[in-house]
């Protein structure tokens, strides 16, 4: 039995929405509008941290944010796909996301998937006793910065994080399957080998970036709905 690793981006890859935007669409559309108008001006993680402080000041509660995460679209086929492949026994699951630890843990627990993931690497977040979610960049802005030239945001280089995971989990996996949609999934995709597989969602920055720049060594399969990921996962068992 070969050793296999499945790496999941979270927003629009494992989940059928974007946590950072959704919680404000549900609870504070005026803050969602502010994000839309400022996305190009502020580093994304810093912008979300600011939006969370703003929401808290306007009276949006921890319970309201948690409720929004629980009702966020998450396809049942994705739950089945992960659960069934995990049950076969030779696959490690790793979540690599630009969202945050609180959002991802809550949703994985809600879907019964929390025990499936060996590691979650994302931006750290924690609740204060007053119900403010304090979000920080994965790469501390006051410390050494990553040196990625592919275009990863300052908060995290997903390619570097993938390599670091490989270093923590030797020997090398026989096959790596990466599920992603965003432009920040292009950097880790470049690190995949010829025997690896990229499952690229058809809408989003990753598809566009592959079309524009290419250079991938791995096989690429395109998908739109989670039911298609479930089909592919059945062939990986
Ligand atoms: Mg994504
Ligand atoms: Zn990078």
Structural summary, described in words:
With 237 residues, this protein is an alpha/beta fold. It folds into two domains: 4-16 and 74-236, Rossmann fold (3-Layer(aba) Sandwich), CATH 3.40.50; 20-70, no CATH class. 45% of the residues lie in helices and 19% in strands. The chain has helices spanning 10-14, 19-27, 29-38, 44-57, 62-70, 76-88, 101-110, 158-168, 186-190, 205-213, 226-236; strands spanning 4-8, 91-100, 117-123, 125-127, 133-135, 175-180, 197-201, 219-223. The protein has a six-stranded parallel β-sheet, with helices on both faces. Strands 4-5 form a two-stranded antiparallel ribbon. The mean pLDDT is 97. Bound molecules: magnesium ion (MG) and zinc ion (ZN). Zinc ion (ZN) binds at residues 148, 150, 152, 157-159, 187. Zinc ion binds at residues 148, 150, 152, 157-159, 187. Its cofactor is Mg(2+).
Summarize the structure.
The protein is an alpha/beta fold and 237 residues long. The protein has helices at 10-14, 19-27, 29-38, 44-57, 62-70, 76-88, 101-110, 158-168, 186-190, 205-213, 226-236; strands at residues 4-8, 91-100, 117-123, 125-127, 133-135, 175-180, 197-201, 219-223.
Major sheet summary line? 6 strands, parallel
Rounded mean pLDDT score: 97
Bound molecules: magnesium ion, zinc ion
Number of domains: 2
Output the structural class: alpha/beta
Q: Number of helical runs?
A: 11
Tally of DSSP β-strands: 8
Question: Within the largest sheet, what's the order of strands?
Answer: 3-2-1-6-7-8
User: What is the distance, rounded to the nearest whole angstrom, between the alpha carbons of the first and last residues?
Assistant: 10 Å
Q: Which fold does the CATH topology of the largest domain refer to? A: Rossmann fold
Organism: Mycena metata
Keywords: Hydrolase, Magnesium, Metal-binding
Cofactor: Mg(2+)
Protein name: Phosphatase phospho-type
């Amino acid at each position: 039995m070969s050793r296999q690793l499945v790496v999941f981006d979270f927003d629009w890859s494992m989940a059928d929405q974007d946590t950072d935007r959704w919680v404000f669409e549900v609870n504070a559309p005026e803050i969602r509008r502010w994000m839309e108008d400022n996305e190009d001006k502020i580093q994304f993680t810093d912008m979300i941290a600011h939006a969370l402080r703003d929401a808290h000041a306007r009276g949006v509660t921890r319970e309201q944010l948690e409720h929004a995460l629980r009702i966020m679209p998450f396809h049942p086929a994705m739950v089945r796909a992960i659960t069934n492949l995990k049950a076969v026994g030779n696959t490690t699951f790793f979540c690599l996301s630009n969202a945050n630890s609180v959002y991802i843990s809550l949703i994985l627990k809600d879907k019964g998937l929390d025990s499936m993931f060996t590691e979650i690497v994302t931006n750290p977040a924690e609740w204060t006793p007053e119900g403010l979610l304090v979000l920080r960049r994965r790469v501390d802005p006051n410390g050494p910065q990553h040196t990625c030239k592919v275009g990863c945001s300052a908060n995290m280089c997903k390619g570097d994080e993938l390599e670091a995971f490989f270093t923590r989990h030797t020997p090398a996996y026989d096959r790596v399957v990466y599920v992603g949609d965003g432009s920040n999934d292009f950097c880790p995709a470049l690190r995949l080998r010829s025997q690896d597989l990229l499952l690229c969602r058809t809408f989003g920055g990753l598809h566009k970036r592959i079309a524009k720049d290419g250079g991938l060594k791995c096989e690429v399969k395109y998908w739109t709905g989670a039911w298609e990921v479930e089909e592919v996962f059945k062939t990986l068992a």
